[in-house]
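Troubleshooting entry. Yesterday's outputs looked truncated, so today I'm pasting the complete records for two proteins to confirm everything comes through intact. If either block looks cut off, that's the bug. Protein one:
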Amino acid sequence: MLRVFLSKELTEIKRDKKLLFSTILLPFILLPLIGIILYASVSAQPPIIAVLNENPKNTPYVNLVTNYIRSNGG
C-alpha cells in the first residue's frame, strides 16, 4: 500500500516540473544559502563582554581579567 502510494507520488513529481522544483530543488538551494548568510552575520559581530566589579578590593584582578579579554579578542 505504501509502496504504491510512494511510486504514484514520485511519478507525479517527475511529470510536474514546477512541483519538482518547489519541493526538491528549491530547498537544496535555499537552505545552504540561508545557512551561509546566518553564519556570516554571526561571525562578523564580535562578542560583547561586560565585567562587573562589586568588590573594590578585587579591582587589580578585575583589571587583569579585562586586559586579558581585550588583548585576546574579546
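Protein two, checking that the full record survives here as well:
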Amino acid sequence: MMKNICKKLLKEINENNSASVLFRKNQNDTDQVRFEDVENEVYRRFKLTNPENENSFYKLSYKLAKECTQFESYLNNSIFVESNVSTNFNEYLYIFQQGTKNLVKFSTESLKKSLDVIKVIPNQGSYATICYLPCNKLFVSGGYVSSTYLSTSFLIDLTTNLVDNLHAVRKRACASCIYRDNKVYIFGGFGDNDLNICDAFDLKSKKWEQFALPKTACFTSILDLNDKCLITGRVNFMYTYDWNSNSYCEVTNQVTIDGQNILIKDDKKIHLLCDKTVNLGNVDNIKVWQKNLSTESPSNITTCLPIIKGRFAYFADEYCKIYQYNLDSYEIKIIA
C-alpha cells in the first residue's frame, strides 16, 4: 500500500510540480504542497541529521551523552561530600570473618547479625582498617591473615556488594581510620614493625598521601574533635592532630596504653577503654584524665569505629563478637 502511495506522490510531483497532502478526505487548493516546500523540508531534515552540522541531532545527541558522562563522573567524585562526623554515622557495625570473604553486619537497632559474601581478593584477615562512608560505602584496608599482613584496599558498595579495588599502599594491620573532607586517614598500625606514618586516601583523586607521625603507634584509635582529632595507641601514644595546620600536639604521657584500646565520645565526655580500665577525659580540658575505673575491657578490640546508640556504645572484636558498653555504669558485655 505504501509503495503505491509513494509512486502516486512522485508521479504527481513530476507532472504538476506539487503534491497533495495525504490522509485528508476533503481536499482543496490550500492542501497543495509545492516542490520548493519539499526541497526545504528535505534540506531541513538533512541538516538535523547531518553529522557535520553543529546543530544536528547527531551532534546534539553526542554532546548530551558526553555531558551525561561528565556529570556521572562528577557525581562519582563528589559522592562522598558530606558533613564530617565524630563517630560512626551508620547503624551497623561491619567486620570480616578471619580467612573468609564473609562480611558480618551487626544492627544496633535489632541487635542481630547478618552475613554477606563479598567477592574480594584475597580472603580477609583480622585487624583490618574499616570505615563506613557516606552513600552507603565501606572502606577496607590491610589486615592480618595466614601470618601475612595485607596491603590491599578497596571500597564496597553496600547496596550492591560490588567491590572497587584501590591502589595498594603498604602492609598494615592494627590501625584505625577516620573520614574527613573526602579523605580517609589511617594513623599508625603495624606491618613488620610499629608504624610512624599516616596514609590518607583521597576519594576524589583516588590517590594516596602520606604524613609523618611524631612517633610509632600501633592499635590506634581515633576520635574527631571538629578542628582536630584525638589519636591513641600503643605505646602510651596520645596526641591531637590539627586538621588545618597538619601538626601534632602531645596530650599527656600519664595515661598507660600498652595494647589495644578504643575511644568513645559521649557528648563532651571521652572514654578510653584499655587494659581493663576506663580512662575519662573531657573535650574542654583534654589534658586531664581520670584513670583506673575497673571494667571487663576485652583484650582483642577491632580497629573499626564504635557506634553510639542511646546510652550504649557498640564495637566488635577480631572474632566478630559484639560488645555493648554502658556509658553510665562502664559495664561491658557480649551481646552477639
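Both blocks look complete. Sanity check on protein two: Residues 22-27, 77-87 have pLDDT under 50 and may be disordered.
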